[in-house]
Design a protein that fits this description.
Blueprint lengths: L7 H11 L8 H14 L3 E7 L3 E8 L5 E3 L5 H4 L6 E3 L12 H4 L6 E10 L2 E10 L7 H55 L1 E7 L4 E4 L1 H7 L10 H7 L12 E2 L9 E2 L2 E8 L5 E12 L5 E10 L1 H22 L4 E5 L5 E4 L1 H7 L12 H10 L8 H8 L8 E6 L5 E8 L5 E7 L1 H22 L4 E6 L4 E4 L1 H6 L5 H4 L15 H13 L1 E10 L6 E12 L5 E10 L1 H15 L9 H18 L3 E9 L1 H8 L1 H18 L5 E6 L2 E7 L4 H15 L3 E3 L2 E3 L2 E9 L6 H17 L5 E3 L4 H21 L3 E9 L4 E13 L3 E3 L1 H11 L1 H17 L7 E5 L2 H4 L4 H12 L6 E6 H5 L2 H13 L3 E7 L6 H6 L4 E4 L1 H5 L4 H17 L2 E5 L4 H10 L3 E3 L9 H4 L21 H10 L1
Parallel strand pairs: 29-30, 32-34, 34-35, 35-36, 36-37, 37-38, 38-39
Antiparallel strand pairs: 1-2, 1-6, 2-3, 4-5, 5-6, 7-8, 7-13, 9-10, 11-12, 12-13, 14-15, 14-18, 16-17, 17-18, 19-20, 19-23, 21-22, 22-23, 24-26, 24-29, 25-26, 27-28, 31-32, 31-39, 32-33
Helix pairs in contact: 2-5, 18-19, 19-20, 21-22, 23-24, 24-26
Length: 1016
């Protein structure tokens, strides 16, 4: 994780306010980059702005990308200080040694970054230089570099100033717009609301008013002020006498009167003679001495309101007549809990007098009167509690109750939006009597109808269900039959999934008058789930013999159909993943090929085989392997286009049919997408693991016009994909058959050779440079083939790993190497290479113990050599296994160091006894890079207390060089090629050891021993 500044949030806010991110290139920024590039002879120069999750390049030279993820940016460290950050060698700096910019194609070694300090403590980015060569920076160069950064900062501050000017201009324009809007709004209010403004000056006796006031009275007032006579002319004659009622003669003042505020209704006479009613409101205006100098006021036109009130009074009279002639009682209560409206029928049904129920009466007193005389004593439960509470209620409610005198009434209560309620009362005494008689008759029928074990219904000819019993309601997901046929449910006989079945049913019913065992798939009305039923129905005719409705019975046939469907599904689908199986895949492929031949289209077949699935299965167990297969099957399914087919053929084999794609580019893109999505990590019981997939592709009709031929050719292409290193895709090509056949023959020979013990071990000597003595041998696997001669390990080792034979072969190599080493002098060790597949096998630890016990070899004389890639896969489990082996004394060496994955973190987690430098660094001994790497590894080995062995030493110059660099041991052709056991025994001579002496090392003078080894 990269470090963050304490004011990171403030820094990001300032960067965003600059509004420079993701803007087009600007010449002045580009000029700074070119100047820096030329001034310092750097191949890469750029201006980096460090955003929250990325660094974005405002300008750049020598690099194509516009941005990089922030977590790999050197600039994360450059913005931590006001000083320039100079990294002369990124490989030597632990902060950047593992950075992809260093280890990747760019190979960055040198970095210089000057922070762009926009304000005190605010560093928004950097001016950067990069080079793939290590270099230094003088103080003068640093000063020049920071000067260029200051130029960039000046341009950024110019951006900031321009942004601020823009914001200020926007604020000014917004304020002006609001002022215009307020003026427009005031004018609109005056026009729409009929409001006029006026002022009467007491000193001059003149009045002025607003244009809206002039429109109100119908006069043009643009000529000047108005006199008192003008005002009297506008005022209705009946209003003249109290015009100055606001002047109180009892309070004499400097002007003889004190003006009080007023608010009253007046009538104005317009110029056309029409009369308008207004509300006139006035307030006195005082001068600085407190004396009243003017009267200010407004007039609001309420003419329409006055007319509406008159009309309302007429409507109220009509409403009262209507209410008194209703068969229902009605009662309206206001939000203040007082009666607004009622009628005589309400008083009669409630049995109260007019003295208790009248307009303005308190509703709570009416309720209390009813409670006191036991009006609600025949009402039970929550309803009685509701009726006896003083609350008006906020929800509509309808209920029936019986009064003490035996009368039954229905009460409907609806809350008003403004508060209060409207309540109606209906006499239902007679209706209840009829309903009781009907219920008695209905109960007898319902006993038989509802207790039937099969669904029974009656329906109109249009399919509307009239009756349904409990069994049918339950079949469709209802709790009881009443819910199923309740109004609004929409439950009809049109319940078939296939709409044509409704027409078929009615046709049979109307033609024959009866339908028997009509088996169909229907939709459960309440659940929405499909169910299968067997239905029998018959027509019901009226007195004239015409069909009036139909009745029927329904039996659940879902389980029977489900069992049939399950049997069919199991025959055509994989039980674990639910994907189509081999049978369905072959059928679909045959169908699609026939369709392609008819339509002239194409079909692509992809044979897919998971890589490393067996390792995951062996490591985590079969349940985890099954879960992994389900996850990957789902990924494959989601990655395909609609209509494409993915099937599981068995084990870790899948096959895919791509429709309508014949061009290799499109098919290859689909295959690459599959490789990427399958290769993503999968969480298995808290452990992240991943597998790969190899894909073989054949395109019909070019690669085959029959399903079996096309699939066979795709399978052949799959073998080529595996040979190419897995995790890849190969298209079928003519001639692949021979290559696959050859590989199959080699696999057969490999199995036979493992079974018959036809492999051999050769041994290459390892020399101690400090004493020029023989320290041991590395055991190397060889396959002397009877017909093909010596087969290279590069050809058979990958095949052994792929087929899993490496586990058995590796166990044999351990046993044979330990047995051979047991016959050597006791100071010599044997090194045995261990495959990644082998060490991840659950029995690997036991294989090592068996080899040591059988041979009697001391554990400290066995040295297991593993590559860096072993540690990358299931690192925790592998390291745990290595720790167990090391505790019993077995030595561990990391082989081919520096050529695989980054292993420094693993070296810290596990202290290896030996680090073997790969031969590629020794062969390029003269290169400065190789020298630096070898010195770094030697220094690392000394720090960790590990022996450093140089591999592939072939010349005297290389030997002298690795000796000078501090390597502990050497191995290579200069001392001997890998040799059979019979040859190396002649190189060793035992040294006698007395009782009081320590064992001596086997002596091997370099000058003479080298020749004997070469001769051998």
């Amino acid at each position: 994780m990269y470090p963050l500044l304490e004011n990171e949030s403030e820094r990001l806010a300032v960067l965003r306010d600059l509004k420079v991110l993701d803007t087009p290139d600007e010449t002045h920024f580009d000029a700074v980059c070119r100047t820096a590039q030329a001034l310092f002879s750097a191949p890469i120069a750029f201006v980096s702005l460090v955003d929250k999750n990325r660094q974005w390049f405002k300008a750049r030279c020598g690099i194509d990308v516009k941005e990089t993820p922030r977590n790999i940016a050197f600039c994360n460290y450059a913005i931590l200080s006001d000083d320039a950050l100079i990294i002369e060698d990124a490989l030597a700096d632990p902060r950047f040694a593992e950075n992809p910019l260093v280890t990747g194609p760019l190979g960055i070694r040198f970095y210089a970054g000057a922070p762009l300090i926009l304000h005190q403590g605010i560093r928004v980015g950097t001016l950067c230089l990069m080079d793939s060569q290590r270099r230094s920076f003088s103080p003068e160069q640093v000063r020049q570099f920071q000067d260029l950064a200051n130029i960039v900062v000046a341009h950024l501050r110019l951006h900031e100033a321009r942004n601020q000017i823009g914001r200020d201009l926007e604020a000014l324009q917004s304020a002006q717009a609001k002022l215009r809007e307020a003026a427009d709004y005031q004018l609109l209010v005056e026009q729409v609301g009929g409001i006029g403004y006026w002022q009467y000056n007491l000193k001059s006796g003149k009045a002025t008013w607003s244009p809206s006031m002039g429109r109100l009275v119908g006069q043009d007032v643009s000529d000047g002020e108005l006199t008192l006579d003008d005002l009297l002319h506008v005022l209705h004659p009946d209003e003249h006498r109290d015009m100055f009622a606001a002047f109180d003669p009892r309070n004499a003042g400097g002007n003889g009167m004190v003006l009080r505020p007023f608010d009253r209704q007046r009538r104005l006479v317009r110029a056309d003679g029409t009369v308008r009613t207004v509300i006139s409101r006035g307030l006195p205006q005082h001068d600085e001495t407190g004396a009243v100098v003017a009267l200010l006021g407004v007039c609001v036109d309420i003419t329409d309101l006055v007319r509406s009130e008159e009309q309302l009074r007429g409507v109220s009279t009509l409403l009262r007549v209507t209410l008194e002639n209703m068969d229902q009682g009605i009662l309206m209560v206001g939000a203040d809990n007082r009666v607004l409206v009622h009628n005589q029928k309400a008083r009669d049904l409630l049995g109260v007098s007019e003295g208790l129920l009248h307009e303005g009466a308190r509703f709570d007193l009416l309720q209390q009167h009813q409670i006191d005389r036991g009006e609600f004593r025949k009402v039970d439960g929550e309803l009685r509690h509701l009726l006896e509470s003083a609350a008006l209620g906020t929800a509509a409610v309808t209920y029936e109750r019986e009064r003490p005198n035996g009368t039954s009434i229905e009460v409907r209560s609806v809350p008003l939006p403004t508060g209060g309620l409207v309540r109606t009362f209906t006499d239902i005494t007679e209706r209840r009597r009829r309903e009781a008689a009907l219920r008695l008759a209905e109960a007898e029928y319902q006993t038989l109808f509802q207790n039937a074990v099969v669904g029974v219904y009656r329906a109109n000819l249009d399919g509307t269900l009239v009756r349904a019993n409990q069994a049918l309601a339950k079949l469709h997901g209802y709790g009881d039959s009443a819910c199923a046929t309740a109004p609004g449910t929409g439950f009809t006989h049109d319940w078939y999934v296939d709409g044509d079945r409704t027409h078929a049913f009615m046709r049979l019913l109307l033609t024959h008058g009866r339908v028997d065992d009509f088996v169909s798939e229907v939709t459960g009305h309440a659940t929405g789930r499909p169910i299968w039923v067997s239905e029998t129905a018959w027509l019901v005719r009226d007195a004239e013999g015409c069909p009036s409705c139909f009745e029927g019975t329904v039996v659940d046939a879902t389980e029977r159909k489900r069992a049939e469907a399950q049997i069919e599904h199991m025959a055509r689908h994989d039980a674990l993943t639910g994907l189509p199986n081999r049978r369905q895949f072959q059928e679909r492929l045959t169908q699609e090929l026939v369709h392609a031949q008819r339509q002239g289209t194409a079909v692509a077949v992809l044979c897919c085989d998971l890589d490393r699935f067996k390792t995951v299965n062996d490591t985590f167990g079969h349940p985890a392997g099954d879960a992994l297969l389900c996850t990957l099957a789902d990924r494959m399914r989601r990655s395909l286009q609609p209509g494409d087919i993915v099937a599981r053929l068995g084990g870790d084999e899948f096959a895919i049919i791509l429709l309508g794609r014949s061009h290799p580019h499109g098919v290859g893109a689909a295959a690459q997408r599959l490789i990427e999505i399958v290769g993503e990590p999968v969480d298995i019981d808290g452990h992240l693991t991943n597998v790969g997939v190899s894909i073989g592709v054949a395109i019909g009709l070019d690669d085959g016009d029959r399903a079996d031929l096309l699939f066979k050719n795709a399978d052949i292409a799959l073998y080529r994909a595996k040979e190419a290193g897995r995790h890849t895709c190969r298209f079928y090509e003519a001639g692949m058959d021979m290559a696959v056949a050859s590989r199959n023959l080699l696999e057969i020979d490999l199995k036979d050779t493992v079974r018959n013990g036809g492999f051999a071990l050769h041994y290459q000597p390892i020399i101690d440079l400090a004493s020029d003595t023989l320290r041991g041998f590395e055991a190397l696997l060889r396959w002397p083939h009877a017909a093909k001669g010596m087969i290279s390990p590069a050809d058979f080792i990958p095949l052994a790993e792929e087929t899993g034979l490496i586990v058995e072969l590796g166990a044999w190599a351990l046993r044979d190497a330990c047995q051979e080493a047991a016959s050597w002098p006791s100071d010599l060790r044997v090194g045995v290479n261990v495959s990644a597949v082998q060490i991840q096998h659950i029995d690997f630890h036991q294989h090592v113990l068996d080899a040591l016990v059988r041979s009697g070899l001391a554990p400290e004389r066995l040295e297991l050599e593993i590559t860096e890639s072993v540690l990358v896969k299931d690192a925790e489990r592998v390291i745990a296994c290595l720790h167990r082996l090391r505790r019993i004394g077995v030595r561990l060496a990391i082989d081919d160091f520096g050529t695989g994955y980054s292993s420094l973190s693993y070296l810290c987690q596990f202290p290896f006894d030996k680090i073997k430098i790969d031969r590629s660094f020794i062969q390029d001994a003269c290169a400065s890079t190789s020298g630096a790497i070898v010195r770094a590894v030697v220094g690392l080995g000394r720090h960790l207390g590990a022996t450093i062995t140089a591999e592939g030493v072939e010349t005297q110059a290389q030997l002298d060089w690795v000796r000078r660099e501090g390597c502990s041991e050497v191995q290579g052709f200069i001392f001997g090629k890998p040799m059979p056991p019979s040859v190396i025994k002649g190189m060793m001579r035992p040294v006698g050891v007395g009782h009081d002496q320590q064992p001596e090392r086997t002596h091997c003078p370099v000058s003479c021993e080298r020749r004997s080894l070469l001769d051998a």
